[in-house]
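Changelog note: in this version the structure field was regenerated for every chain. One regenerated record is shown below for reference.
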Amino acid sequence: MALGRVSDVQISIGPLFMANAIIRTAQEAFAKRRLDQIALTSRPTATVIRDGQEKVVDRKSWFGATF
């Protein structure tokens, strides 16, 4: 390095990389949880009449358990 020792750069930049990794991991975990919540709330359902009663069914039961 032209401006100083390599160890000085490692000491000053190392914690920044660690903080970046921690923040990035936390953000990705938060985003994954949020996407899972959205997927649950936007799950396709249908209201059907079976045996004379209305039932709400999800997509898996529309065509059997093959989907």
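Spot check on this record: Residues 6-61 form one domain. The first strand starts at residue 45 and ends at 50.
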